[in-house]
Amino acid sequence: MLNFIITETYTEMSMLAAKRVAAALINKPDLVMAIPTGGTPVGMLAEMSRMAKNGDADFTKTFAFNIDEYIPLRNTDPQSYYYFLQQHLYQYANIPAENTFVPDVLAANLTAECARYEQTIVDHGDFDMTILGIGHDGHIGFNEPHATHSPVCHVINLNVDTIEANARFFARQEDVPQQAITLGMGTILRSKEIVLIANGKSKSSVIKQLHDCTRIDPQFPASFLLMHPNVTVICDREAASQLHI
Question: What share of the chain is helix, strand, coil (3-state, %, to 5)?
Answer without folding.
Answer: 40, 20, 40
